[in-house]
Amino acid sequence: MKKKIEILAPAKDLIHGMAAINSGADAVYIGAPQFGARSNATNSIEDIAELVKYAHLFHAQVFVVINTILYDNELETCRQMIWKLYDIKVDALIVQDMAIMEMDLPPIVLHASTQANNRDADKIKFLKDAGMKRVVLARELNLHQIKTISTASDVELEFFVTGALCVSFSGNCYMSVANGERSANRGSCAQNCRLPYNLIDGHGETLIKNSHLLSIKDFDVSDQIPNLIEAGVCSFKIEGRLKDIVYVKNNVSYLRQKLDAFLEGNDSYTKASSGKCTFTFDSALNKSFNRGYTDYFVNGRDQSIGSWESPKSKGQYIGKLIKTVSNAYQIENGELLNNGDGLCYINDNNEADGIYVNKVENGLAYPNVLKELKEGTFIYRNNDAAFIKIVEREDSAVRKISTTLLLTENENGFELIATDEDGFVSTVHLEHAKEQTKNNESIAENIKTQLAKTGFTPYKADEINVMFSENWFLPISKINEMRRTVFEQLSAIRMAGYKVEEHQLVKTSHPYPETKLDFMYNVSNKLARKFYERHGVTEIEKAFELQWEPGKSRVMTTKYCIKYELKKCPIHQKEIMGEKLKEPLVLKQGELEYKLKFNCKPCEMEIWEKDAEFEIEEDHFH
Question: What is the pTM of this model?
């Protein structure tokens, strides 16, 4: 059996979900009415049910995200919602809170969300043995670590492939809640990481002013797909449940074509759903929202990953500004621009700034407001008007299931048999008198032309055969009616033939790899506590949201490192780092102040509130 490899797309709502399917997604993930980590991307049970029907026609899957931490008074509401999701046949739930593992659940498949901070092989094996079918891996992992995890347990592994990155280990960012009681783990992240900060050293001197020091580039490991599959990944996830339809269609179609090229003629792997897509646009990741791209740590730490100038979308690099000509700009590769484009550049204050292009004429871009730009300024396009217009059209991405049609005769008339790419068969009988055609000429070609008109159905007829013993006549209206009926039936047969996988949780008591859990395990209710206690945990700290001490807390742990970005890392950049920085380094944003702590052994950075006390680590262990 070939192993199925899946592209998993985000869906803000039903429309985005259907667009993702039409663009080639093998699965989509969508927010439930409550308890999703994007509180403004919720959907009704009815809409999710519609999406499930549409996806299942293509044998694509729908996963529902329930990845916030739960409070005691929410447990029963959550449990009831899960039963409703089971009833509408969703394929799996993506969960963070272990309370769900303790509930009286229907036999529904569970995936461990990336918020569960899945980066240790032993903890991932624990989750598999506790009943998780799939684990969404932490984005910080490298190929070697993924391979180690894959070898340790045969759980399905899902990994992000494109989209925005959380600078913190997922599920372990408390910046937002510590600043104003909006909890990221409860679906309301305030994105403090995208704000501008000043960096101040231990002498009180400002090293960097007004820079987005915690904002990092977006993720793109699409060129690593073969290596990631080799390491054990079976699902490639696109980030972006709040992104627009152009982003979804562009990202999905780009990855569909990339993955198809890898799968073609491959003996070990195959795609995870049915149908083939056609596109009226050329997808490119830099044409939709992005802050520039990084492969993060997939190949180890080897490059700068900060996006300090701006947390906004940079877009596609066009070229340098050659000169300003009266009230227009002459830009390298200016012929690529269109009326209505949005351009972006970095101004003298090292901030992102923008221009709207009213019209492009004779290679010159006429802006709505002429701003003073230096010659040589790098110009990016972050709003490609012509591209957006094409992609937004409903017919810009079309997905069709291949079929073979055979029109033949029987005792009292005719029958049309449709066989699809998955081997499902639909047969329609037509009682009709058999009369020869005028002049006894074959009308087989005319019949084929009519049968080929699959129009707005999800099918295309790749091969059409007409097998008659004589040159029988059939009215066009009857041919069309048979075609319509055979495809309607085929859809019903495909839906009936789709089996939602079921998995009934059995409570286990195998030991959890830790016996003491700090606040970063996000235990916020009695059921999660019960779950861990049954697995041998003896000490459990409450979730941050229930106990934090204002001003003194650790609010983030991250693999990203400001010292490394400044080329001051005592391990990787010893030869070029020059003078050591005087610590503690402090990030300041208005009244907000954070201290940075560098843990060089695990190669991590921690962010603490201003009144926190900790010892500064010396690099004596090297």
Answer: 0.95
